[in-house]
Amino acid sequence: xxxxxxxxxxxxxxxxxxxxxxxxxxxxxxxxxxxxxxxxxxxxxxxxxxxxxxxxxxxxxxxxxxxxxxxxxxxxxxxxxxxxxxxxxxxxxxxxxxxxxxxxxxxxxxxxxxxxxxxxxxxxxxxxxxxxxxxxxxxxxxxxxxxxxxxxxxxxxxxxxxxxxxxxxxxxxxxxxxxxxxxxxxxxxxxxxxxxxxxxxxxxxxxxxxxxxxxxxxxxxxxxxxxxxxxxxxxxxxxxxxxxxxxxxxxxxxxxxxxxxxxxxxxxxxxxxxxxxxxxxxxxxxxxx
Length: 289
Hints:
Elements: H1 3-15, H2 18-25, H3 29-43, E1 48-51, E2 54-57, H4 59-82, H5 84-87, E3 92-97, H6 104-113, E4 118-123, H7 126-134, E5 140-143, E6 152-167, E7 178-179, H8 180-184, E8 189-191, H9 196-207, E9 216-218, H10 221-229, E10 235-238, H11 239-242, E11 248-251, E12 253-254, E13 259-267, H12 274-288
Parallel strand pairs: 3-4, 3-5, 7-12, 8-9
Antiparallel strand pairs: 1-2, 5-13, 6-10, 6-11, 6-13
Helix pairs in contact: 1-2, 1-3, 1-4, 2-3, 6-12
């Protein structure tokens, strides 16, 4: 087994094809194909399903990809260690967040200090955040439920209650509060399964003897916000995520308080990376203040 063979396999897997892997590595497609073929022949294993122009890892390929992700991430950390002075002048920090606005003040400070760093932020629910970190597709996650276990380093940001919200022209816009019983009878707009906000609401409703059945299920917080703004129903969000929107009115829920914790997390094994470390340090300083 050679390094170049593993590298060729890894980039074909993450790029989704031999041509794109060749472009990324500045090699020819035959060279990439040859390295992968030699790896498969040497160990008598099929690493990719090849269907016309579709290339997908087999079960063995998926297992090897989990190993090569760690391997090449460790290599990247070694490069950062050996060139720390350059690491903070260029590079990419990948963040996946269930609500990006929790990051805004931290991103501002980070960009002021390290303007050469490219930051990518994409949205996802709690399940997406966790899986992206484990698969090394993200460096840092932002989520509303602090994970249990010892795999993660955590920086707590805030803790706020879940609230309901409606459009300003909704019949309930002037309501002082809404009970679980009242909510169970109303058209609810809820996020997809996997959302911790939804899970907490449904768990509490069930304990109190009610069932929350969404009239509309939407993927992502922004989709819920837009649907509620149209007057189609009642949405839910943590108070910290409600923000400022002249189209919407917040309504407290008359029930035992449901708190949503918001935190930055990263895998402990990757917390030593220079970019991750300085971002978490800035977050800790700002959270303490």
